[in-house]
């Protein structure tokens, strides 16, 4: 239990137990089901790609365990609007408080500021959190294969699908990919960052591409910092990207998105 992922998952178990005491799952479910405002997340990525553009999932995060505080001037609504203006397909919003200084309000504010679909970026281990994601307004959830058994992932995917949400399943190695491929979702995120050691290598995506079957959409995640990084991925046929730090460190995150993907 000495790696950061194990520590985060411990925190999540406590958070879920506390949340259940504060508000029952059936009450949160009623709120989630009453929302009629789902935005197609996978669809938005495919639409961009069909237009010959990259499908960029632009992240909103203040801090991370590996980098500490990344952005001091942190206004989720302004950041979301800037991403929307500069060609993002979707948003990814950190809702974890303890390790990423995220929050539920960040998701609410970002989503209200634009019409882009939103991923709840958090460490989901329990149906309660999936239902809560929709109640907050999320259009997609993240399932991290390093954190979940295959049967758990399938259960959480079913809960998400019943609420109309898409799923991005995240893997870092071949074994996790095999587990992820048992899900229905077409969205397979290959995280270039090892969540236990923080080592980040773009070769992680490139090495695993050949193992992803046709019909799945690879999203390369983490460590895309320079236009050359994006170009390298495109040369190998990768068309969907999840990017955080490169945008969050820039004075205007949307301008940084434009420069990374559209300036040449
Ligand atoms: O980034 C971390 O330190 C981290 C630690 C433990 C679990 C997850 C972590 N990050 C989540 C991500 O993978 C990134 O937020 C995402 O892929 C964007 O990466 P980047 O463009 O490098 O900010």
TrEMBL record:
Lineage: superkingdom: Bacteria
PROSITE patterns the UniProt entry points to: IGPS
A GO term, aspect molecular function: indole-3-glycerol-phosphate synthase activity
Pathway recorded for this protein: Amino-acid biosynthesis; L-tryptophan biosynthesis; L-tryptophan from chorismate: step 4/5
Pfam families named in the record: IGPS (PF00218)
EC numbers on record: 4.1.1.48
UniProt key word Coiled coil: no
Domain Indole-3-glycerol phosphate synthase: 5-260
Keywords linked to the UniProt accession: Amino-acid biosynthesis, Aromatic amino acid biosynthesis, Decarboxylase, Lyase, Tryptophan biosynthesis
Swiss-Prot/TrEMBL catalytic activity: 1-(2-carboxyphenylamino)-1-deoxy-D-ribulose 5-phosphate + H(+) = (1S,2R)-1-C-(indol-3-yl)glycerol 3-phosphate + CO2 + H2O
Keyword Lyase: yes
UniProt-listed HAMAP family: IGPS_B
Family (UniProt): Belongs to the TrpC family.
Name of the protein: Indole-3-glycerol phosphate synthase
Source species: Castellaniella hirudinis
Gene behind the chain: trpC
